[in-house]
Amino acid sequence: MSKGADIELIDVTKRYGAALAVESVSLKIPAGTYCCLLGPSGCGKTTTLRMMAGHESITEGDIRLGNTVVTDLPPARRGTAMMFQSYALFPHLDTVDNVAFSLKMKGVDKASRRAKAMEMLKLVHMDHLAERRPAQLSGGQQQRVALARALITDPQVLLLDEPLSALDPFLKIKVRQELKKLQLQLGISFIHVTHSQEEAMALSDLVVVMNGGRIEQAGTPREVFNRPATAFVARFMGDHNVIAGRVTAIGDDDMTFEVPGGASFRAPRAPQSGLEPGEPVEIAVRTDRVTLGAGAMPGCGLTGLVQNIEYHGQKVQVALNAPGVAEFAVQVPETAFFAAPLSVGDAVPLAWTPQDVHILKASPAA
Ligand code: ADP
Ligand code: MG
Question: Does the pTM exceed 0.85?
Answer without folding.
Answer: yes
